[in-house]
Design brief:
The complex is a heterodimer of chains A (185) and B (199). Chain A has 185 residues and is mainly alpha-helical. Chain A contains 8 helices and no strands. Helices cover 68% and strands 0% of the residues of chain A. In chain B, helix 4 runs antiparallel to helix 5 (109-139). Classes of the chains: A mainly alpha (185), B mainly alpha (199).
C-alpha cells in the first residue's frame, strides 16, 4: 500500500467514526466489488454471497469505531469478509480441511516469481476450478490490496505459509489453464 | 500498487457478472442499514417526548407573558422564561419531526436534543429561583424555606453545570477527531501534489 492509500484509509475510517453518511457510503461503494469478488470465490451460491457481504458491512459498521490501526483497513475488511463467509460454510466445510496435506509449514516459502498470470479472463476461469484453499489465497493475491504479511494476517497463518500456499496455488492454476488449453486444441 | 496491477484487478473484477435481482436486494438492505429507521416503539417514545415538551413550554409561556407584580423580579423571570419557552418549543418541534419521519440523524439530532435538555434544565432552575426562592428570601431571609430553596437551587445549577461540562468534553473529544481529519487531509493533498510534481 502506498503512503497516499494509507492516509486515505485512515481518513476514511476517521470520517466513518464521526458518523458521516457520505463516508460510510464511500467505504461501501469503494470496497463492495472487491469484497464480493473475494466472497464469491469462497462461496458457490451467489445469493448467499450477497447475504454474506451484507452481514460483513453490518460487522464493519459496528466495529469501525474499535479499529486500532485505521491504515490496516484493507486487511481488516478482508478478515471480516472471510470470517463471515467461513461461518456460513462451517456446517458444510471444515476449516481444517482447508489446510492442504502437502503444505509447507516450516515457514520456508518457495519461490513463485516465475509463475505469472496476465490474462484476467483466464485467471477468473481458473480460480473457479481450484480448491477452496487455493482460491482463498490466490484471490487475495490477485486483488492486489494486500501484502504477503497482510494476507497472512487475514488467513491467520505465518508469512512463510502464505508464500508456500501461493506457490502451490499458482502451480495448480497453471495446471488447470494448461489442461484447458490442451483440451481446446 | 502500480498501474498495470490496477488494470489487471479491474479486468478481474469485471469478469464477475452478478445477477441483477440479487444485487438489487442487497442494495436495498444496505440502504436500510444507512437510514436507521425507528421502529413503532421508538416513534411513540418520541411522540411522548414531544408532548412533554409542550407541557414544559406552556408554563414557561404563561410566566413569560403574565404580570409578575414586582417589576424588578418580573424582568428576571422574563429573562429566563422566554428562552425557556423557545427551547421547549424547539424540543417539541424536533421530537415531533423525528416521530413523524421515523428517522434519527445520529450525527446531529441527539447532540441537538442534549443541548436543548441542558438549556431547559438551566432555565427551569433559574425560573424556580426567580419565581420562588428570591421572593421568599426577600420577604424572610432567615426563614428555613429560603435557606432550603437557595441550597436546592445551588444543587440544581451544580448538576446542570456538571452535565454541561460532560457535553463540552464530548465536543472537545470529537473536535480532536476533526483536527486529526484536517491534518490527514492536508497530508493527503501534499502527497498528491508530490506525485503530480514527480510526473
Amino acid at each position: 500500500m502506498t503512503e497516499k492509500q494509507a492516509i486515505y484509509c485512515e481518513l476514511l475510517v476517521l470520517r466513518c467514526r464521526r458518523g458521516q453518511k457520505d463516508a460510510l457510503e464511500e467505504l461501501v461503494s469503494g470496497w463492495e466489488r472487491k469484497l464480493f469478488y473475494y466472497i464469491r470465490r469462497l462461496v458457490e451460491d451467489e445469493q448467499e454471497s450477497w447475504q454474506i457481504l451484507q452481514e460483513t458491512w453490518v460487522k464493519v459498521l459496528q466495529g469501525i469505531t474499535r479499529l486500532r490501526e485505521p491504515r490496516k483497513l484493507p486487511a481488516w475488511l478482508y478478515s471480516i469478509a472471510r470470517m463471515t463467509a467461513l461461518s456460513h460454510l462451517r456446517s458444510r466445510y471444515s476449516e481444517q480441511a482447508m489446510l492442504d496435506n502437502h503444505e509447507d509449514v516450516s515457514g520456508n516459502g518457495k519461490c513463485d516469481s516465475d509463475l505469472t498470470f496476465d490474462d484476467a479472463e483466464q485467471v477468473h476461469y481458473g480460480l473457479g476450478r481450484l480448491s477452496l484453499q487455493h482460491r482463498d489465497v490466490l484471490t487475495l493475491f490477485f486483488l492486489r490490496d494486500l501484502t504477503v504479511q497482510e494476507i497472512a494476517q487475514v488467513l491467520d497463518v505465518p508469512d512463510g505459509t502464505v508464500k508456500s500456499r501461493l506457490y502451490y496455488a499458482k502451480r495448480a492454476l497453471r495446471a488447470v489453464l494448461e489442461k484447458e488449453a490442451g483440451d481446446h486444441e | 500498487m502500480n498501474e498495470p496491477d490496477k488494470t489487471f484487478r479491474d479486468e478481474l473484477l469485471d469478469m464477475e457478472k452478478p445477477n441483477a435481482g440479487h444485487r438489487r436486494e442487497y442494495e436495498k438492505e444496505v440502504q436500510r442499514m444507512f437510514e436507521k429507521k425507528l421502529n413503532c416503539l421508538w416513534r411513540i417514545a418520541f411522540a411522548v417526548l414531544s408532548v412533554a415538551g409542550l407541557l414544559v413550554a406552556a408554563p414557561f409561556l404563561h410566566m413569560a407573558t403574565a404580570r409578575m407584580g414586582d417589576e424588578t423580579l418580573g424582568f428576571f423571570v422574563r429573562l429566563v422564561t422566554v428562552p425557556g419557552s423557545i427551547l421547549a418549543l424547539a424540543w417539541t418541534a424536533l421530537t415531533a419531526w423525528v416521530a413523524a419521519k421515523g428517522r434519527l440523524s445520529l450525527r446531529v439530532q441527539p447532540a441537538g436534543m442534549a443541548v436543548m435538555s441542558i438549556g431547559l434544565a438551566f432555565f427551569l432552575t433559574a425560573s424556580l429561583v426567580f419565581v420562588f426562592v428570591f421572593p421568599i428570601m426577600w420577604e424572610a431571609p432567615t426563614d428555613h424555606r429560603s435557606m432550603c430553596g437557595l441550597q436546592l437551587s445551588l444543587i440544581g445549577f451544580f448538576l446542570v453545570a456538571i452535565i454541561g461540562l460532560c457535553l463540552i468534553l464530548r465536543v472537545l473529544y470529537r473536535t480532536e477527531f476533526r483536527t486529526r481529519e484536517k491534518l490527514l487531509e492536508i497530508e493527503y493533498r501534499l502527497v498528491e501534489l508530490g506525485e503530480k510534481l514527480e510526473k
